[in-house]
Design brief:
Elements (H helix, E strand, L loop, with lengths): L4 E16 L3 E17 L4 E5 L6 H8 L7 E6 L2 E2 L4 H7 E4 L12 H11 L4 H14 L17 H13 L5 E5 L7 H16 L3 E6 L2 H7 L2 E6 L2 E6 L1 H7 L4 E8 L6 H8 L4 E4 L5 E7 L6 H10 L3 E8 L3 H9 L2
Parallel strand pairs: 3-8, 3-9, 6-7, 7-8
Antiparallel strand pairs: 1-2, 1-4, 4-5, 9-10, 11-13, 11-14, 12-13
Helix pairs in contact: 3-4, 9-10
The protein binds adenosine-5'-triphosphate and magnesium ion (MG).
Adenosine-5'-triphosphate binds next to strand 1, strand 2 and helix 1.
Length: 328
C-alpha cells in the first residue's frame, strides 16, 4: 500500500501587504514553508510540533487540498494533492483548530447529519455511524444530540469536530491543534481516541505546540520552526539528540546565595539558583552523568553547613529539545 502521506520539499509563500503609515502599504512575502519533507505511515501518530507561526497549519492545509503549494510535491496514499485533489479528499478527515463551520442553530447530531449528507454517505449508514461516533467521543453523555451547537462548550465543539472528521471513516486524519483551549478531561478523551484510531491503522498528522501533549500522543515528532523541519524522531530519540542530558535538582535548607561559587568549586559544575515555594534554595546542576557528581554535591553542601531537604534527577523534556534545536 502507498504511504499515507509523503511530502517532498514543500514550499509555500504568502504574499501580503504591510501597512506603512496611513495610506501606503508595501508588498511582503512570507515564507511559511521553506522546503519541508516528511512521511506519515498508516498506524502512526506523527506530531508536527512548533511555535506560533512555524507553518503547521499551512502544511495541514496543503495536504488537505485547501492551499496550493508553490513548489514541491505532496501525495496522499499515492495521489497528488494538486492534480488528484478529489481522490485525496475522499481519504482524509480534517479538523482545523479555528474554522469549524458548524451551524449554531442545529444540534450536534443535526450538524453531523448535514455534513454526512454533503459527503454523500447513505442515510442508513450515516445514522449508524453517527451513533457510533457520539458514543466513541462521549458526546451522547454530554447531551450533544439535543443541544444546539451554539450552546456547546469548547470541549464539546472539539469532540464534534473530531466526529465530523471521522464521518467518512477516512484512513488519514489531519488534526490541527485538536485540544487547543480544552479542559483536561476533554483533551484526554481526544488524545485517547486518536491513539486508539492509530492503533487500528489510521495515519494521523497531529499539530500542537504543547510538548507534553506531543510526548504522550505521538509515535514520531517533526519539530518545525520558521517553515523548516529542524529535528525528527520519536520523543525518546529526540531527547537523546541533545547534548545536555540531565538536571540534578537539590533543595537546600539554610543556603546562603553568595555560596554558589563555592558549590561550583566543590562540585566542578556551576549550579543555577532558584527558590521553591517552601523557601528552600533550589540548586540545579546540568550534567551528563548524575552519578559522577552526586557524591560531591552531598559532601559540598555538608561542608557549607547546610542540609539537603530533597534531591531529584530530571530527564530532559521535549521543551529542552525544542529550545536546543530552535536556537541553532
Ligand atoms: N493567509 C495568510 N496570509 C499571509 N500570511 C499568512 C497566512 N496564513 C499564515 N500566514 C503566515 O505564515 C506563517 C505560518 O503560519 P501558520 O498558520 O502555518 O503557522 P502555525 O504553525 O499554524 O502557527 P500557530 O501555532 O499560531 O497556529 C506565519 O508567519 C503566518 O503569519
Ligand atoms: Mg496553526
Amino acid at each position: 500500500m502507498a504511504k499515507a502521506i509523503v511530502a517532498k520539499n514543500v514550499v509555500k509563500r504568502y504574499i501580503t501587504r504591510v501597512r506603512k503609515g496611513l495610506v501606503r502599504s508595501v508588498k511582503k512575502i512570507i515564507e511559511a514553508l521553506r522546503g519541508v519533507s516528511f512521511e506519515v505511515r498508516h498506524g502512526e501518530v506523527v506530531g508536527l510540533l512548533g511555535p506560533n507561526g512555524a507553518g503547521k497549519t499551512t502544511a495541514v492545509k496543503i495536504i488537505a487540498t485547501l492551499l496550493l503549494p508553490d513548489d514541491g510535491e505532496v501525495y496522499v496514499e499515492g495521489f497528488d494533492v494538486v492534480r488528484e485533489a478529489n481522490e485525496v479528499r475522499k481519504r482524509i478527515g480534517l479538523l482545523l483548530s479555528v474554522e469549524k463551520g458548524f451551524y449554531g442553530k442545529l444540534t450536534g447530531r443535526e450538524n453531523l447529519e448535514y455534513f454526512g449528507a454533503l459527503y454523500g454517505i447513505p442515510r442508513s449508514v450515516l445514522r449508524r455511524r453517527i451513533d457510533e461516533l457520539m458514543k466513541l467521543l462521549e458526546l451522547d453523555k454530554l447531551g450533544a444530540s439535543s443541544r444546539l451547537y451554539e450552546e456547546y462548550s469548547l470541549g464539546m465543539k472539539a469532540r464534534l469536530g473530531l466526529a465530523r472528521a471521522l464521518l467518512k471513516d477516512p484512513p488519514i486524519l489531519l488534526l490541527d491543534e485538536p485540544t487547543l483551549g480544552l479542559d483536561p478531561p476533554s483533551a484526554r478523551k481526544i488524545r485517547s481516541v486518536v491513539k486508539e484510531l492509530a492503533r487500528n491503522g489510521k495515519a494521523v498528522l497531529y499539530t500542537t505546540h504543547n510538548m507534553f501533549e506531543a510526548e504522550i500522543v505521538c509515535d514520531r515528532i517533526l519539530l518545525i520552526n520558521r517553515g523548516k523541519i529542524v529535528a525528527e524522531g520519536s520523543p525518546e530519540e529526540l531527547k537523546s539528540k541533545i547534548p545536555q542530558m540531565r538536571t540534578v535538582v537539590v533543595y537546600v535548607r539554610g543556603f546562603n546565595p553568595n555560596d554558589v561559587e563555592r558549590v561550583a568549586e566543590l562540585v566542578g559544575v556551576k549550579p543555577s539558583l532558584g527558590i521553591d515555594e517552601e523557601g528552600f534554595a533550589m540548586l540545579k546542576f546540568q550534567v551528563r552523568k548524575p552519578e559522577e557528581v552526586l557524591n560531591d554535591i552531598v559532601k559540598g553542601i555538608a561542608k557549607l553547613g547546610c542540609e539537603i531537604a530533597r534531591l531529584r534527577i530530571e530527564e530532559p523534556t521535549l521543551e529542552d529539545v525544542f529550545l536546543y534545536f530552535a536556537s541553532r
